[in-house]
Each structure stands twice: as C-alpha cells, then as structure tokens.
Amino acid sequence: MSTAAESTVIGRESRRVILATMVGTTIEWYDYFIYAVCAGLVFSSQFFAAIGKDALIVSFATIGISFLFRPIGAILAGHLGDKIGRRAMLILTLLLMGGSTVLIGFVPSAGTIGISAPIILSVLRIVQGLSAGGEWGGAALLAVEHAPRSKRGLFGAFPQIGVPIGLLLANGVLAAVTALTTPEQFLAWGWRVPFLLSIVLIVVGIVIRSRVSESPVFDEVRKQKERASVPLVPLFKNHWLLVVLGALLFAANNAVGYMTTGGYVQSYAVKVVGVAQTPILIGVMVSAVAWLVTTLLGGWLSDKYGRIRIYKIGFIVQLVWMFPFFALINTGDIGLIILALILFTVGLGFTYGPQSALYAEMYPANVRYSGAAISYAIGAVLGGAFAPTIAQLLQSRTGSVYPVGIYLAVITAVGLVAAFFVKDRKGVSLGIVQDGQSRANLR
C-alpha cells in the first residue's frame, strides 16, 4: 500500500474512532445525567417522600452511592481492558449503562410498591456506577492510542465532550417533556420518557462501536506478550503515587462539574431562587454547548502548550469564578444565570479537555487501562460522588449558598497543588516501556 493510501486508511479509522468514543460516552452520560437531574427534581417526592424534610438530601445521596461502585467497575474493566482489549469493554459498559437506565424508567413509585421502589432504584443506580467506572478509561485510551502524536490532546478531548453533549441531551429531553406536560403529569409519568428513550441510543451506540478496530498500542502489547496477568499488582507497586495524583486532579474538576451534572444548580435555582424549571434546564443546555467548546479548546491547547499548564489555568479560573457564579445564580435573572453557567465552563473545559491525553501518557501500556480508569474512578468518588449532597447539606443547614462556594474552592485548590507534582509528558511514546520508567512522570 502506498504511503498516501495508508495515510487515508489511518485517517478514516481515526475519524471512526473519534465518532465511536464520542457517541458512546455521550450515550453513557446522557443515561447517567438524567438520573442526576431527576434526583433533584423528581425522586425526592416519588421515591423518598417518607423520609420527610431530608428527602432531597437522601435523593442526592443515591447519586453518590453509585460512585462508590465506580472503582469496582474501573478495576474490573481495567483488568479486562488490559488483558482482552479496549474495544470489547466499551461495548459491555454501554450495554450495562443503557440496560439499567431503561429499567429505571419502569420502576413503580414508592406510593405503589412501598420501600421496594427506592431499593430497586438504588440498585439500578449502582449498576450505572459500575458501568461509568469502566467506560471512561476505554474510550479515552482508544481515542488517544489511535491519535497522531501531535494531536493526542485534541483526539482525547472528543470522548470528553460526550459529557457536555450528554448533559445537553439529558436536559434537552427533560426540558421538552416538562414543556409538553403539566407539573402533575411530569411527576406522574413524564419523567420516565427520557429513561425509556435510552433504548434507541443503545442500539445506535452498539452499531457504531462494533465497527471500530482495536487500539494499535494494545495490539502491540498482545503480540509481544507484555500483558500483565494481574494489572493491579504492577500498577500499585510501581505507580501508586500517579494513581493518587491523577485522582486528585480529577476530583477537583468533578466536584465542580457536578454542580450542574449532578442536578444541584437546577434544584437550587428552581426550589430556592424561584426560577421556572424549563428556563433553568435550557440555561444548562446552553452552558453544555459552552462546555463542549472549552473542552475541545482545552485539549487542542494542551497539544501546543502542554497538559499541565492548561490544567493549572483551568483550576485558577475555577477558583476566581466560584463566588461570582453563585452571586449571579442568586439574582434569579435567567440571562445572568446563563452568563454565570457559560463562564463556569471555562475552568471545567480546561481541566477536562487534556485529561485523556494526560492519563494515557502517565501510565505504561500494560497497565494503562487500569491506571487511567482507577485514577478516574477514585477521583470521581473524592470529587463528584457526594458533591450535590454536600452542597445541599451546606446550603440547607446554613441558609446560604456561599459555604458551597468555599467547599468547591478548597477542593479546586487541592487539584491545583496536585498539578505541580505531575510531570508533563506531552508526546511521549505510548508503546511498551519498562516498568520503572513511569517514575519520570513525577517532578
């Protein structure tokens, strides 16, 4: 095959991989986020009303419970992903997430089946957590390991934008349903529609992902028989500090991001500030578009200026904007709220866009899936898991939203400090390296 023809084939496959990882993560996070938004708007009254005044806090807590199972999903998917490949795990995690989401749409309310309702709901949310724990690592690595060396940040940003697109779809579908139903109809059955629609997305995602080739890096590992029999052993023996630092980086992004993806801002704006439900959902949709743009921009800039430099800029923006953000939410003016949400995404995008490339370059090929997935999952537990619950607790106990800003500022500062201890390895070879080499990843 000529060089030009080979380049065309590689380019076509790269575009297919970008589409598959982006579409797949979009579907995964659409499923994940409709639960989070409904936890703030619906589940407290439909499943947890018997608890009384703390029903909303408990409803948000079910979001966090699923995060506790994400490390388990990451360990299982990482183990299998480092042994049998990235592609197979992407299909499995999509089936798990989609199946549990559709089933949530069929769960009767507590008024119909009593305590069984919140138990079934929580179990299905746990399955979502297992799936989410394994999904990201495979999608991120497949995109980055297929990418040209000089464009890993940009390629790796495409599975990342599945989050804002999923948020856009989730809030968009919910906004459409709320606009087409009365409040009584929405609580009675309308909220179920977005969950049931997931079955269509599952079919689309499986078709697209089944057509993607395996990662060339994993093929190299497999051919040279470098696969670790138990990837967790060399990972934690040689690279445990990288796992910790990677988790702290993501925790700082994830806690802040879950103010909207976890439904807290929507719930606060509607139930405390008094904004109508449909306009705030539309506002979050607008911010999701902005988040998509800043995520792609963050990945692209990381190819030019380095992953860690863009991370630091993003964390500084998060710190600076935290309190003006909540001040604008408190005005109740939907235009100012949308402005607040848009500017809120700059820090998020700059600390999310470079993540796939950074994590892929942090770990050796034979433990890369495990390392990336577990760092991500632990970071999610430390960051977003109970962020909406903590935020709701702080706000309800103090009567002010600004303690929430202090909480988010502290966790952002932790991420910023962690960034100073990670060495930027932009452009490093992703092929097989010796086990001890990743010590060069630390400053």
Descriptive overview:
The chain is mostly helical. The protein has one domain (12-213, 229-441): Up-down Bundle (Growth Hormone, Chain: A), CATH 1.20.1250.20. Helix content is 79%, strand content 0%. It has helices at 3-46, 55-68, 70-83, 86-104, 110-113, 116-145, 152-160, 162-180, 183-190, 192-196, 198-209, 216-223, 232-238, 240-261, 264-273, 277-305, 307-330, 334-350, 355-362, 368-382, 387-398, 402-419. The longest helix has 44 residues, at 3-46.
Keywords summarizing the entry:
single chain, 443 residues, mainly alpha, Growth Hormone, Chain: A, 22 helices, 0% strand, disordered N terminus
Query: What is the number of helices?
Result: 22
As a whole number of angstroms, the C-alpha radius of gyration is 21 Å
- CATH top level is Mainly Alpha
CATH superfamily: MFS general substrate transporter like domains
Helix content: over 70%
Architecture (CATH level 2) name: Up-down Bundle
Give the tally of β-strands: 0
